[in-house]
Hints:
This protein has helices at residues 3-6, 19-37, 49-77, 83-111, 121-125, 129-136, 147-165, 168-192, 211-226, 236-254, 258-282, 286-292, 295-302, 304-310, 314-320, 329-356. It is mainly α and 365 residues long. The two termini are 35 Å apart.
Amino acid sequence: MPLKKLFTISDRSGLNYMPQLDTLRAMAVFLVLLEHWFQGEYWFKIFPTGMIGVTLFFVLSGYLISEILMRSRNDAEANKHTRAFSIRQFYIRRTLRIFPIYYITLVILLIFNIENIRHIFGWFLFYVSNIYFFKIQNWAGSLSHLWTLSVEEQFYLIWPFVILFIKKKHLLNAIIFITFIGPAVRAYLFLTGSGTEVSISFDQVLTPTCMDCFGLGALLAYFRTYVDRKFNLNNLYGIIMFVVSAILFVIILLTDTGIFGAIVLRTIISILSLYLIAGASIGFGGVARYVLQNPVLLYLGKISYGLYLFHNFVPAICRSFGIQPIPNPYLNFLLQLAALVSIASLSWYLIEKPINNLKRHFSYT
């Protein structure tokens, strides 16, 4: 099969397909892999790669989900369908995309009792593992990354009702208010708890502490839907915001940040992510376009859910098949990456894609 045909991407959302966003997904997963697969001191460890990757995911989710819901709201207001129809279609489509491979994975983990999951299975079954990790102030080995999926699902529980049912004149203020919840809750937890470092901490795995990520993405969706379809941050104000955020980001990394870093680091990363998402959703040109529309990266973005879901299990899988870690950590990373892409590809073509194709029966129109 020709490489170009293998890596062809189809429209998989309720919006016009924005290919460069798929590459951002692939990059977000890569940043998480750097955090989880490289143990010890490496030059790139000065950056909180895991937090950057997860935050990019959250902002992107806030943008895409909000824009889909806002367009569906417009259709409901134009009497094309009801808000109840929008809610139903949203949850059916999310269920088809997220649940099948997640619960198949959980069943496999349960059968082999990976990380003693049988004793804590309910937390993962009901997408509340982030609350469990906050409660015990500890991780659960290769299960730890699943906290982000819990945050996403908890976000999905409330967000459709915010977007679809708040009066339109109050919608922007509601999104702004929700955006400020993130740093406000992080400040409260920092001041009443043990503090945090410049990394993902247990104070930051709760859904309210992530709301600035989702809220900033929703702000972009609001302006794209109700102000200017081509609204972008590639203007004087947007560039100033980007530069100031980048400077603050570097300052936080190079200094003893204390409460300032605990409160605003995730917001700063969210703003930087938002700038990339705003440009990629319209389409960067030049060298950036060449990179962001590379067919291999687009393919990795397409299977990014599987890449993220399975990545923490790959090192153990490689060991179980007698593939011992190579002394060179970079070659070992590439070996594990090849295994991960193979597993995620099988998951996509055998399970995810056939189920995902059922979404055509549940469109928003």
